[in-house]
């Protein structure tokens, strides 16, 4: 995967923000913010251990490295099936930041574990082979996307790559690729496209959000992003979690409700399918 143009000035941290307003303003302008420090909490260690055991078990059975029947590995609904994932994703520092971005009433509507074994070529979108993409549903719901590093996420092991400001561009990257405007496996072509669409913001750059284990960051829906290849000898583990306000109806593209959990405040709108906190690990 090409990473031409990515900036060494790749991260932000709590120490760079003197006030909540500065953090929120940066997030709204750039479409990302972080990393922030959570640390080696009990929940992080528990998730790392559980994911390691799941991978070892699946490799011993010669099946997929990401089993679908395990609660901790449940694709996109692990917040409703795994207490471990729920506990890590709702650590107080994370929810404090989420509240700064979307308010005190918070719906937890998606979580999944990410496993990238040695040699994995970043974030390849299923069935399309695309690496650079937009999380359309997250932009539609207009919440915040949280990435948590369970193990180190670096340019060597694979980290999130974003093009700042593109969350405001309202672009359909797949349609633009079909029209010959870009190549979604080529980072440099995305930079050229961004410069062409919004020359007032040129030159665009790729920011690599490198995180140590126990750090987390946020992105806005709609931001153009990809993930670098894992060139390390170790498997990389991560968790992604998404949060939204309860006055937003959370449905998938087929119009079916997505299960949610109220993690802060209250839901006075009753628009969504609510679930209880999971009891099993």
Automatic annotation (TrEMBL):
GO molecular function: 2-oxoglutarate-dependent dioxygenase activity; iron ion binding
Presence of the UniProt keyword Zinc-finger in the record: no
Gene3D superfamilies for this protein: q2cbj1_9rhob like domain (2.60.120.620)
Signal peptide residue numbers: none
UniProt-listed Pfam families: PhyH
Keywords: Dioxygenase, Oxidoreductase
PANTHER family reported in the protein's UniProt record: ECTOINE DIOXYGENASE (PTHR20883:SF48), PHYTANOYL-COA DIOXYGENASE DOMAIN CONTAINING 1 (PTHR20883)
The protein's name in its UniProt record: Phytanoyl-CoA dioxygenase
């Amino acid at each position: 995967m090409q990473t031409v143009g990515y900036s060494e000035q790749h991260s932000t941290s709590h120490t760079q923000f003197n006030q909540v307003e500065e953090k929120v303003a940066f997030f709204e302008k750039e479409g990302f913010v972080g990393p922030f420090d959570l640390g080696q909490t009990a929940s992080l260690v528990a998730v790392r251990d559980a994911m390691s055991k799941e991978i070892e078990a699946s490799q011993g059975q010669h099946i997929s490295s990401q089993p679908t029947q395990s609660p901790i590995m449940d694709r996109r609904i692990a917040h409703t099936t795994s207490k471990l994932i729920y506990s890590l994703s709702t650590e107080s520092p994370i929810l404090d930041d989420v509240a700064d971005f979307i308010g005190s009433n918070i719906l937890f509507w998606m979580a999944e574990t990410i496993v990238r074994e040695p040699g994995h070529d970043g974030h390849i979108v299923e069935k399309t082979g695309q690496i650079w993409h937009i999380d359309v549903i997250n932009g539609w719901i207009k919440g915040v996307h949280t990435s948590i590093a369970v193990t180190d996420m670096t340019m060597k092991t694979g980290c999130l790559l974003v093009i700042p400001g593109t969350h405001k561009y309202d672009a359909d990257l797949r349609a633009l690729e079909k029209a010959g405007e870009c190549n979604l496996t080529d980072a440099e072509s995305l930079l050229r496209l961004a410069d062409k669409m919004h020359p007032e913001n040129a030159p665009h750059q790729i920011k690599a959000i490198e995180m140590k284990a126990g750090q987390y960051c946020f992105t806005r829906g709609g931001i153009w992003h990809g993930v670098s290849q894992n060139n390390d000898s170790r498997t990389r583990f991560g968790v992604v979690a998404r949060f939204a306000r309860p006055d937003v109806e959370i449905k998938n593209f087929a119009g079916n409700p997505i299960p949610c959990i109220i993690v802060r405040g209250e839901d006075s709108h009753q628009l969504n399918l609510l679930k209880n906190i999971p009891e099993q690990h």
